[in-house]
Amino acid sequence: MSDASITPARYDAVLFDLDGVLTDTAALHAKAWKTMFDEFLRRYSLAHDLPYQAFEIATDYRSYVDGRPRYEGVSAFLESRRIVLPLGNMDDSPREDTTYGLGNRKNEMVQELIDAGVEPYPSSVQLVDRLLAEGIKCAIVSSSRNARRVLEAAGIADRFELVVDGEVAREAELAGKPAPDTFLEAARRLGAEPERTVVIEDAVAGVEAGKGGGFGLVIGVDRLDQADDLRAHGADVVVADLDELLA
């Protein structure tokens, strides 16, 4: 096992994924994805005289959606079911059965869940506060376009000098996870070399991005009983909770 010690002598910055790492919102996203896709799949199966097969969080969410930009997640899942839909446009109504329409419907659902309340993981906040006190820079790198909304709802936005989220990625034309581009851009903006930067992720796509970017330490957070998958895709260390990094 790699040494998971995060000290100023070894690292200048830590890049945190948000959902599932700092806040208990990965479950909200999974719930929104399942609700949206199950509604669509019921309509689709009836319209095409096919058996209905529900969206499964344990398999479909982890394999095709978790950690990816929203519309890429829609495309990956539909492709896995051999379902072809029009791509549509980013401003499609959430009621339209297009790739963008389904993505917008999921976003509408998750925003409703976020507005109902978001809680940060106490140990994650403790780790961020310790790192900041030691002079280590902390930033958010999230595929979500709701990252700032989540940070505000959780009351921890003031701790991060930089947020590279789905909106930033779109504006800067950065490839989403599992490509390392968003992590590399965050490190660049912080003035930190990748080899002196830590990535903390709970998604397979995220640890794969950290590994691909040549970062000094990639830590996987196992919230979904996928420790082996996280290691296989690039995690140097896997923890069940960030309190393990406080020791």
UniProtKB/TrEMBL annotation:
Entry superkingdom: Bacteria
Catalytic activity: beta-D-glucose 1-phosphate = beta-D-glucose 6-phosphate
A molecular-function term among this protein's GO annotations: beta-phosphoglucomutase activity
Annotated keywords: Carbohydrate metabolism, Isomerase, Magnesium, Metal-binding, Phosphoprotein
Enzyme class: isomerase
Obligatory cofactor(s): Mg(2+)
EC number(s) given by UniProt: 5.4.2.6
Keyword Phosphoprotein attributed: yes
Keyword Protease (UniProt): no
Family to which this protein belongs: Belongs to the HAD-like hydrolase superfamily. CbbY/CbbZ/Gph/YieH family.
Alphabetical list of PANTHER family matching this protein: 6-PHOSPHOGLUCONATE PHOSPHATASE, HEXITOL PHOSPHATASE B
Name the record gives this protein: Beta-phosphoglucomutase
Organism: Euzebya pacifica
